[in-house]
Amino acid sequence: MVGTVESGARVIEPDRKVTDLLDVLRQHLGMDVAALAIWQDRQLVVQLFAGDGRSFGLVPGITIRNGGELYRDVQDERIPMVSGNAHGYARARHSSALDELDVGAYAMTTLTDGRDEPYGLLFCLTHEACPTLQERHQQFVQLIATFLRDSLLDLREMWQTRSQIWSAISDVIDSGGPGMAFQPIVRLDTGEVGAVEALARFSARSGGRIRTTEEWFRDARLVGLSTELDLAAIRRAVAVIPDLPPGLKLAVNASPSTVATVLGEFVKDLPHRDRLIIEITEHENYTAGPETVLAVGHLRDLGVRIAIDDAGTGYSGLEKLVLLRPDVIKIDQVLTRGIDVDPARRALTAGLVALAGEIGGTVIAEGIETRTERDAMLRSGVHYGQGYYLGMPSPSLVPRTPAWVGVGPSWRRAP
Ligand code: G
Ligand code: MN
Questions:
Q1: In whole angstroms, what is the distance from residue 93 CA to residue 37 CA?
Q2: Where are the transmembrane segments (predicted)?
Q3: What is the 71 CA–ligand 1 centroid distance (Å)?
Q4: Mean pLDDT of the region 2-8
């Protein structure tokens, strides 16, 4: 039996310095694994390990079953720090934690951080008994524990920050996802609305400090909840499709990893998926791998349209446009801003328009804030846009017609 239970992946990122030390310890004692578990809510949660942790059921974030008992046994010196025959020992002492972990030999010590606060447990395990393991090795374990003290202070802080972030994001997911605002995507010449983009909106309260939408998604990546948060937002967004004015499509955002892993399964049984546009967002350097190309093909077969978000920025490489051949290319607002006065921006936009023509895609310009930006986009061959000039994001599903409709397009008079 594996002596661990899932605790919901509250883990810190692997810290090189600490894992190196763990590996030194493991090799010195000739053990299968050396690991660090944090003492939290009267439980031991595995954080990092070096060596073959998985054969003991050790995964970062997992709680050691009966770990509380084990921790106190070690703390109160009720069990020896080092044992070459833990099988016999566990039986004699009825130590269920050791028994369940299937440990033949172990060395372990409790840890305090640089402020002398209890931190957790440092332990080494082998499946086989190891009669040559000597009491002397206890000194080595202590030596490593002393070495670790200062790093643990950093680790604790990192852990506290991460677990707060993890809880805030979990709360949002459990409450049914972030709030939503809808921003119209309109024809630049007539102002006619063709679609709305669902934008996640977080209430500042749930996170403690105020974070932007971008920061929420970046934090979700940091703690490994990116896909879950993406899906929670998408679930909430697609629920409004039946209430959208007829003919309007709905654009939702998804990170490449969500697209490559779970999105197909989610979309498969979705009614109205022919009204759905999936915008593949990008906030880290990433090259579309074969799994993304496959997943995009699958989504398209299901009737969903694919957009590449933020095109023209460093994040959304041209390679991705060529590989994924999206139905829609969304020009990032950094290209839109000041396009009316910048020939370089116009040239890049014209390039994207030409590319879209080749792959049979539509271009949408994001972040249009002025009439002159709209006009410049139209002259560059872009027919659709989004931005404050065309319509603000709003909780309402019925987009308001832009104020300029009927005023007469100034761009006709342009040279
Ligand atoms: O990454 P994505 O393009 O999905 O992000 C869109 C974000 O840009 C939203 O948060 C939205 O509120 C914001 N936005 C929409 N239109 C404009 C605009 O005209 N100007 C600026 N500065 N931001 C905009
Ligand atoms: Mn978007």
A1: 22
A2: none
A3: 50
A4: 45
Query: What's the topology of domain 2-165?
Result: Beta-Lactamase (3.30.450)
Which tens digit of pLDDT belongs to each residue from 86-117?
877 665 566 677 777 888 999 999 998 877 88
Q: Is the pLDDT of residue 207 over 80?
A: no
* 175-385 has CATH 3.10.20.90 classification: no
Q: 255 C-alpha to center of ligand 1: Å?
A: 16
Q: How many whole angstroms from 367 Cα to the centroid of ligand 1?
A: 6
Q: Scan for tokens 């880290």, then name that residue.
A: 284
Residue 411: predicted pLDDT? 42
CB 369 less than 6 A from any atom of ligand 1: yes
Which residue blocks in 53-204 are alpha helix, DSSP H?
67-75, 86-93, 96-101, 137-174
Best CA proximity match to 148, nearest among 330, 337, 20: 20
Q: Return the structure tokens found at 229.
A: 């948060």
Least Cα distance to 110 among 137, 74, 135, 76 occurs for: 74
* Helix, strand, coil abundance in the chain, percent, nearest 5: 45, 20, 35
Instruction: Name the 3-class secondary structure at 414.
Output: coil
Identify the pLDDT of residue 370.
95
Residue nearest (by alpha carbon) to ligand 1 atom 15: 387
pTM: 0.73
CB of residue 199 inside a 6 A radius of ligand 1: yes
What DSSP letter does each residue of 300-314 carry, written as one string?
HHTT-EEEEEEETSS
12 touches 162 (CB < 8 A): yes
Cα–Cα dist 84/105, whole Å = 5
CA dihedral sign, ordered 359, 361, 367, 368: positive
Ligand closest in space to the Cα of 307: 2
Q: Which atom of ligand 1 is nearest to the CA of 213?
A: 10
Length of the chain: 415
> Do residues 250 and 277 make contact, with C-beta atoms less than 8 angstroms apart?
yes
Residue ranges covered by each domain of the chain: 2-165, 175-385
Tokens of 1: 């039996």
